[in-house]
What does this fold into?
Amino acid sequence: MTTAKNLTDFFKLSERLECELRLTNMSDGNPQAVASHSWNMIMMAIALRPYLKKPVNMETVMELCALHDLPEAIAHDIPLHQQTEEVKKQKHIQEEQAVNSINSLLQDEHIIARFNEYELRQSPESRLVKLLDMLDTGIQHLCAKDLSYVGTFRDNFYWKLFFSDSFASAFDYEPILRDIFNEIRERVAARLQNELGIDYRIFTTEK
It folds into this structure.
């Protein structure tokens, strides 16, 4: 049976997510914490609720937003541009071990089911949450104090991804998400031009 000690240890573990930093920068110039990323997703879900076409259980959406990156409190975040096939395999193993560690504290199959649901991406809730995960990256491109750092990784990897048709088309799952992403992308393109003198189209034409 989970005890006060187990729960206290879990609360200490989850606090680490506030210390785990992502690659993206925030409006104050500091790196974004993973916990901040999850919080942003929860805010998006709350605001989007009236506009969603596909029915979802909002309690499940909130739980998935809050929990989806929790294993990174143990396994740590790995930037996308560093994720080779071998790194992805190791990341998967480490995150499975992290989930087991979390489960040893909580002993709650409901939580484990949520981790599995997000990984499988079959439920409407998990698909929506994955899109919110992607959308937050775009929001940080919009909010970041300085965008110049984004292009320093693997020959503009992130800009090529952000402006690709395949990335944008994922948001077609929910029309409001595609509308928002189009708005964000237009504003980010304007920032690149006005602040860095970069025409975003070079990222859509380079091979």
